[in-house]
Amino acid sequence: MQLQGSLAGDSDTFQDFCVKCLTPQVHLNGFQCKDPAEVQASDFTSAVLKNPGNTSNGLDVAVTAANVLTFGGLNTLGISAARIDFGKNGLNPPHIHPRATELLYVLQGTLLVGFVSSTPENQLYALKINAGELFVFPKGLVHFQLNVGDGPALALSSFNSQNQGTSQLPKALFVSNPPIDDAVLEKALQLNAADVQHLRALISKT
Question: Residue 53: its pLDDT value, please?
Fold first, then answer.
């Protein structure tokens, strides 16, 4: 007799954590649902990505999210999107999406894109892509996009989560709340105390 194997796994989460609560309270993974009798066609449309974002900042980039927080019709559907506007030399800095794979489509310009694997070798997969081309960033891996064209660039990203979550590495390390102890950053990144303070001040402004 041949034995058949089986696989099982937990469903993906919609938030960073969900600590067990023993008191009789209800906390939903997502949002409560409207009474179907009150749902209208307008609940399933949004203009949140219609207008360009303001790229006048230290990174020359603007990311506009269309997820369950800004577009209620996405609740429970496991999908979301984002518009990414790049000024010249604009950078969407190294970051992760803990709950989603990202599929990026370039609408205008040329981007240098890449991600780093979780293998011990920290393999970088990077290349330049142009308007009309796609690139996929696997779930949870560090990735980035840099405008390397001669002018502005525009991209559209889609995610297989209603709330993909985003953690920018520079901000997570240097402007967390409360701050990570200086000794941790100094040893991990081989910096001195003055370097850490300089980076905290600089990154807090971007």
Answer: 97
